[in-house]
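Please check this one:

***
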Amino acid sequence: MVNAGVALALVLALVVPVGTAQAAPTQDTPLDWTEGSFEVGLKGAGKALIPEAVDAPDHERLSVPVDPCHRELSLGLTYEPRNASARVAEEGYAAEATLPYRFQAGLIAPNGTVLHRIVVDEPDPSIAFGTVEEPGEHTLELELLEGATVDWRVRIRGFAAADEPTCDLWLNEVETNPAAGGDWVELYNEGSTPVDVSGWSLQAEEGSADRTLAEGTVLAAGERRPIDLGPTTLSPADETVTWLGPRGSVFETTPSLTDADADDRTWQKAGDGLGDWIFADGTPGQPNAG
């Protein structure tokens, strides 16, 4: 199990400072480097070296939220045996004895189906881990098959699936303090294929906005669609808006946005899509400034 003193790294939403360009949507990290330990006696072939050691199975389960775009996964696993040589020496066995280590990593779908399972017998920061067909909250199950007490670090990265139309979607413009009417967020499909975003949702960190897109909501190719969130649903100070996929996975998050004046200026992507976030005259449904 994970030691109480070892903090698990959280899956981090990308926060981009004002004036800094966002990275292209080719890579995501649904599980950033996470540390833990397996506190066990010898397992598997290691028992040949210290035969009276007690077999103590151990495993860990970690959440892996996969978004609709980044479904080609890569597993990183590094590890370091803890005091293995000292233990061998103190128990009277050859100090040069080498304990084998093998881990098993499995990816489990939200419905409990095991999608992928591989065995890792040496540290590797980048191992192909298969493609997930459906987005959502998956689970990484990590188990020690052979070895002794060991400290480990694990990470899952997601890459844009080939020809995946959701990779062309963006949070494109945000109005948190309008001169009149309600707050709104503009969604942009820069691709050439219509994309059904039914069941996707928009959530505010500081304000009260929590809007699920209705059944049949389709973003046409090249469409910029403002989504009305109603009055005062977004905070004019330090607001962050997150766009979530149909099963709750984070798709995109804005930087912290502040709009002190109730006017028609908005936060928007310069030139649409991949541009920097800038503060300029609002362009709902039209190409952005820059």
